[in-house]
Write a structure and sequence with these properties.
The protein is mainly α. The protein folds into two domains: 40 residues, no CATH class; 120 residues, Lysozyme, CATH 1.10.530. It contains nine helices and two strands. Helix 3 crosses helix 6 and helix 4 packs across helix 9. The radius of gyration is 21 Å and the shape is elongated. The relative contact order is 0.11.
């Protein structure tokens, strides 16, 4: 009888307060099954103007967030602002030809050579299969590289709600010393446009 009561109690508690690890694993397994068996893949990233670019990027971010843990997500405003700064709303050659929305480099000769750079440089701009793949890689970089540890601390402290504070921790993302100012200016511009 005690065992039956214990089982009933555990079932009741588990129903109303599910184990977060089991819940995450179940959600992840379901999403993986849907992607593999129903052909749900990255959304098409088609655009012909700035507004459509932002809409396409938002669809991509939504797709990635399906199975990305909340603590690993990057603030949406920041992601959009950085992609605008890096790719000029997807108009740059790297975005058009290499699907690279963030100017991500690769330290080999396998990527795209920037214009007016000698063949002898040791790096290239990375080429991706699609634009959503570049967004996923960008998220991975910010979540794993030691140089962005301060960024992750600010994200945790601000609960991922302060893209301007996080932008100030991205000085290693670009060789341009004014980079954070450009990103913050785009965040403010986008906020003013939605008012």
């Amino acid at each position: 009888m005690k065992i039956l009561i214990l089982i009933l109690f555990s079932f009741t508690v588990g129903t109303f307060f599910p184990n977060p690890v089991i819940k995450q694993n179940t959600e992840s397994a379901t999403i993986t099954w849907v992607k593999n068996n129903l052909g749900y893949g990255p959304p098409k990233f088609e655009y012909s103007n700035n507004k459509e670019f932002i809409q396409a990027l938002n669809r991509c971010i939504d797709y990635i967030h399906l199975d990305l843990p909340h603590k690993q997500r990057i603030n949406r405003e920041l992601m959009i602002a950085q992609s605008i700064v890096e790719s000029d709303y997807g108009k740059s050659r790297f975005a058009r030809e290499g699907h690279n929305l963030y100017g991500i480099r690769i330290w080999s000769k396998e990527g795209m050579l920037p214009l007016q750079q000698p063949e002898t440089i040791e790096w290239r701009v990375r080429i991706f299969k699609n634009k959503c793949e570049s967004v996923m890689y960008y998220i991975e970089i910010l979540n794993t590289k030691q140089v962005y540890a301060e960024f992750r601390k600010i994200r945790e402290i601000t609960l991922n709600q302060d893209p301007i504070a996080m932008a100030k921790a991205l000085d290693s993302f670009s060789t341009n010393k004014e980079y954070e100012k450009y990103v913050i200016a785009v965040i403010n511009k986008l906020r003013n446009e939605t008012k």
